[in-house]
Amino acid sequence: MVSSLKTAVVAGLVHTILAATINTTTTTAAALGTAVPTLTISTAVASPSASLGATIPSQAPLPPTQGWCIGQIFCAGSLLQTINIAQVYSDPKTFVDKPTSKSSQQVLADFSNFNLSTVTEGQIVNFVDNDFLGEGLELEAAALTNFNPTPAFLNNVTDPLLKAFAQTVHGYWTQLARNTNQSALCNEYPGGTCESSLIPLNHTFVVPGGRFREQYYWDSYWIIQGLLQSELYETINATLQNFMDEIEGFGFVPNGGRIYYLNRSQPPLFIHMVYDYVNVTGDTSILQRALPLAEAELAWWANNRTIQVLSPYTNQTYMMAHYAVNNTAPRPESYLTDYLTVHDPTLSTPLTGNQTAELYSELASGAETGWDYSSRFEAIPQLGNPGLRSLNVKNNIPICLNSILYKTRMLLAELYGTSNATASSTHLQVAASIRAGILDLLWDPAKLAFYDFNLTSNARNDIFTAATFYPVWNGIIPNEILASQSNAFGYFAAVNLVVNKYNGTVPVTFIDWTGLQWDAPNCWPPLQYIIMQALRAIPSNLTTNGLPTPSSNQSTYDLVPAGQLGFKEAQLPGQPLLGAKANQNATATGPAADINKLSGTVVNGGNATADEGWRDTLQREMANRYYTSVLCSWHATGGSIPGLLPQLPASELNLTNSIGNTGNMFEKFSNLNVDSSGYGGEYTVQAGFGWTNGVLLWVASTYGEQLVAPQCPPIIATTTTTTTTTTTSTSAAVGLQASSGAVITAMVMAFMASAFLL
């Protein structure tokens, strides 16, 4: 495997052939036995975007050949651009995930027969149907050995419904585990019998789900958090071995397991995963291989993503990391999206060649952040999708990346310990320098929040994002936070505002008009995890006081430090009301804005306990809200639990296009509607979903005794449609949940009292 990866670096390609058959046996699980997986392959059928006889639209000049991706089929070039211009698939990633049915030479020969000035939609459809196979066929379902259907963490969950749901989610690992079909790999490029974009891996891995068919880097951190609770230690080890193979072969961990990701990485959480695995299992044998490779990965980030920054605040110079991908072409998996961003037909003045190349670099850099895309990285955040042309990723020093790299150094120092005191000391010194840079450049002591540093303006940005919680999660707690309980709460005051004002969890930003998926109203599982972990990191002596309350004529907004959010209260996104007329929101300001406030808690926030400190209150409310979002949206799309939670009637499932469905685990959620997935972005909302499942299981294990069965609002048809890989969810505008029906708690109580399910 390692040798083939090294060959792939030279050739620029990795090739596989599809499996002759796909295992589709039914999933079963015996105590500490083998879970036999189910893998359903759905092949997208090419369909013309115009009549079959219509010629495809004219094309812009081809981008330069990319040195990291030199193939002529799945890398930027005439074939890939033509297929995307024809728009025969709704998702550009579909095509680049399809292995060829012929040799590379034959596919290229068939394509060369076209006259690109007259080629028709029908000819392109026939070409892809004849020369390409189903997407994802290079992978096979993986059997999980030592699968325990009732892992110990389930005993932490006291509510019977929530325990049963956690067990159901635990079982989803069997549907997401994959292996490369090693017995069917092609010969090396260019003489093989077929071509594929897959990077073949030696070991089992867990995929996120949906269009994300391969192993992904930062997703795997939260997947592993769940696998640890599920006691699937062999699968975790296998995942880490794959990452180590990639570091040996490429020098870094790519964004994901496809050749088109070989020019970029993702937030570098490899050593975080190794540390957690060793900490839980005690398996230190992995360190012999992992530590040298962690050094290699850090060297890659230092050499390719680190720059010198002079602080305008202290005149000190720091070496700080940023996301900056060397790229001058559309991303293959999002080719048409990038192409149209650059060649927008509505613009009167086209971009110059240099501007085009720079924008393609910014788009790839935005993908490397994992936040693809967010107003956080736009020069003009208010523009939303059009603002992608103003992406300024490379000129931002991000909170998240530098916090992760700080913690990586600290973890390495701990793992080395006394066995390599020199290496340990070196990492501690570098970590101290990164910490100083973060506190100088990114921390605003007056606003009690972290903000990205903008190299263009030579100042901190003023966009408040959930990234503010990364430093404390990674062990950087500013002195101002440590100075008082009031300041410590002030750092988390936005969390308190959200659970009182909105129905869901914490959105990425409070900018809701962009249509970008890493903006409001979307809430992402990793960010909820990070917020809860940051709360846990606050010293206990700062958390003894109860949760502060606003005065009688104010709302929780007034507890937020001045200027922290960058918005006046009336400018914050509105919370739609349940059953209200279209576009009618809750009161925007004053005490009535806190529509979810209850005595000692919030709607779907669990039950308050005596002498509960403010930190524990926010953790309890966040844990319950996350569980609510996952469970209610799963139930709204057909999920059910025998004897505890009946499936919704067809009349309601029809509203979410979920008839025949058994529940979706979404990749993101809405902070306005706990019945719904999130929305926006370059692709339809995905179900599966690796990090959602991982965080859910971690929450169940960590907060199980504090979890209370949620109140799920009724599903009401609206004009907002959310499309998933298997369903279309048209969900309710919801609010004032405590006063509305479809309450799961009531369902469970009714069943226990009369054996009758509502």
TrEMBL record:
InterPro entries: 6-hairpin_glycosidase_sf (IPR008928), 6hp_glycosidase-like_sf (IPR012341), Glyco_hydro_37 (IPR001661), Glyco_hydro_37_CS (IPR018232). It is an enzyme of class 3 (hydrolase). It catalyses: alpha,alpha-trehalose + H2O = alpha-D-glucose + beta-D-glucose. Residues 1-19 form the signal peptide. One of its GO terms (molecular function) is alpha,alpha-trehalase activity. Keywords: Glycosidase, Hydrolase, Signal. It comes from the Eukaryota. It holds the Pfam family Trehalase. GO terms for biological process: trehalose catabolic process. Its EC number is 3.2.1.28. The keyword Nucleotide-binding does not apply. Belongs to the glycosyl hydrolase 37 family. This is Trehalase. It comes from Suillus placidus.
